[in-house]
């Protein structure tokens, strides 16, 4: 499993990939031609100070590590933390990561999505 590192890869995945909105995260997925899974994590500054943002990233990274063998290969995946991830238990974050592999999507209404942007904070 590789890490998405540059802004161009993040932006391409967010702009061209499919979106799954889960309870604690938003997931953007885009097929890649390398046959490997590449994952990037984004936590915007609206989520708190650097200590809080890094805590959220560590928890998401660990949940991904525990479920990496089940995540799809041949895809670039960008995981964007939602405000709900700040107070979420680790088990809830793990559950959302597992839902990536299952392909389950939580539908949201237009009213709920009105305050979100599609740029993933880039």
UniProtKB/TrEMBL annotation:
<dbReference type="InterPro" id="IPR000100">
    <property type="entry name" value="RNase_P"/>
</dbReference>
<keyword id="KW-0819">tRNA processing</keyword>
<protein>
    <recommendedName>
        <fullName>Ribonuclease P protein component</fullName>
        <ecNumber>3.1.26.5</ecNumber>
    </recommendedName>
</protein>
<keyword id="KW-0540">Nuclease</keyword>
<dbReference type="GO" id="GO:0000049">
    <property type="term" value="F:tRNA binding"/>
</dbReference>
<dbReference type="GO" id="GO:0001682">
    <property type="term" value="P:tRNA 5'-leader removal"/>
</dbReference>
<dbReference type="InterPro" id="IPR020568">
    <property type="entry name" value="Ribosomal_Su5_D2-typ_SF"/>
</dbReference>
<dbReference type="GO" id="GO:0042781">
    <property type="term" value="F:3'-tRNA processing endoribonuclease activity"/>
</dbReference>
<dbReference type="GO" id="GO:0004526">
    <property type="term" value="F:ribonuclease P activity"/>
</dbReference>
<keyword id="KW-0694">RNA-binding</keyword>
<comment type="subunit">
    <text>Consists of a catalytic RNA component (M1 or rnpB) and a protein subunit.</text>
</comment>
<comment type="function">
    <text>RNaseP catalyzes the removal of the 5'-leader sequence from pre-tRNA to produce the mature 5'-terminus. It can also cleave other RNA substrates such as 4.5S RNA. The protein component plays an auxiliary but essential role in vivo by binding to the 5'-leader sequence and broadening the substrate specificity of the ribozyme.</text>
</comment>
<comment type="similarity">
    <text>Belongs to the RnpA family.</text>
</comment>
<dbReference type="GO" id="GO:0030677">
    <property type="term" value="C:ribonuclease P complex"/>
</dbReference>
<keyword id="KW-0378">Hydrolase</keyword>
<dbReference type="Pfam" id="PF00825">
    <property type="entry name" value="Ribonuclease_P"/>
</dbReference>
<dbReference type="InterPro" id="IPR014721">
    <property type="entry name" value="Ribsml_uS5_D2-typ_fold_subgr"/>
</dbReference>
<keyword id="KW-0255">Endonuclease</keyword>
